[in-house]
Specification:
Helix content is 34%, strand content 21%. The protein is α+β, with helices and mostly antiparallel strands and 379 residues long. The chain folds into three domains: 103 residues, Reverse transcriptase/Diguanylate cyclase domain (Alpha-Beta Plaits), CATH 3.30.70.270; 62 residues, MutS, DNA mismatch repair protein, domain I (3-Layer(aba) Sandwich), CATH 3.40.1170; 107 residues, 2-Layer Sandwich (Dna Ligase, domain 1), CATH 3.30.1490.100. A five-stranded mixed beta sheet has the order 5-6-1-7-8. Strands 11-10-12-9-13 form a five-stranded mixed beta sheet, covered by helices on one side. The protein is globular, with a radius of gyration of 21 Å. InterPro entries: DNA/RNA_pol_sf, DNA_pol_Y-fam_lit_finger_sf, DNA_pol_Y-fam_little_finger, DNA_polymerase-Y, DNApol_IV, IMS_HHH_1, Rev_trsase/Diguanyl_cyclase, UmuC.
Length: 379
Amino acid sequence: MLDPKVSVAAAIAEIGSRKIVHVDMDAFYASVEQRDDASLRGRPVVVAWKGRRSVVCAASYEARRFGVRSAMPAVSAERLCPEAVFIPPDFVRYKAASQAVREIFQRHTDAIEPLSLDEAYLDVTQNKTGIPTATLVAKTIRQQICDELQLTASAGVAPNKFLAKIASDWRKPNGQFVIQPHEVQTFLLALPVGRIPGVGRVTEARMAKAGIKLVGDIYTMELTALEQEFGSYAQRLYELARGIDHNPVVSNRMRKQISAEDTFPDDISLAECEAHIRRLAEKVWNASKENAREAKTVVLKLKTKEFQSLTRCLTSRDPVPSFEVFLNIALALRERVDLSPKQLYRLVGIGLSNFRLEEGTPQDRSMAEAPLLIAEETS
């Protein structure tokens, strides 16, 4: 456990001189579509199937100006931007583009941890090309992606993964931001707590009630006080407020689960969760197809108004054959929740696990160990 009196400078010294780059492709799916079809360039592009039950997979920056965002219902996107061009997702092409980006990464380092098709961590503490700084490595990678693939990427450079991921979003699109070790404390203390991984809208609102709005507010609190407010999550908050993240870049572990979840602005009944389950199921199914994975287990996760977590799952002998079967199982799992019909819920999640690899295919070791929570494409 971290010494509560540790300073940011001591913490950075403790993790050594790691150089981590987080590369995040800009509006990746939509950018691939615009690259491959010149008529789409400069136009608002929404990657999604049209339909009442469909959700947005990605939106070009032209569409985002109208408020279109990933994971929103496609009907909402159409209402916000009637002029948008809707393109059905083509994950075969997106995966090919992602692999081409990966090959550029491999020129510089073998320590690559993909998070999805459009983002990855790279440890360039020792790089293959002899480029003297991580900043120049990131700049070179972004230039190669632009020159060779006609796509743009943003990058964050920092002493650890936590900081690098925040930095990559700082100058989007097609930008780069560097956090040097001696700049960590100044950078973090003025940061809104919502930028901390794991701090969603509900936790952020809870923090605000406790007078915690900036990372600097967490930094000034004693660990014991944080534990009283946030339980086991307190230690992680305490460390992140000091710029501490010991998690290494891991490139050789198997993902065990693909999942997505929603925290509701207001608590809702189990019946009212159906629309959210449908949307999350489509998101998870698309992500599983990106990686050509077949799953035998469907998982339903719920969190009650009182923060009680429930998990229900169903495992079949053969992989789930279609989205329709997956969705029906996910919806049916609600029947195995034996709480009162009046019980309210604050969160629902859907997942696929127990993956089967195709016969004769080597294990895909480019995936991080699970469970993996699918993030919205916000780049």
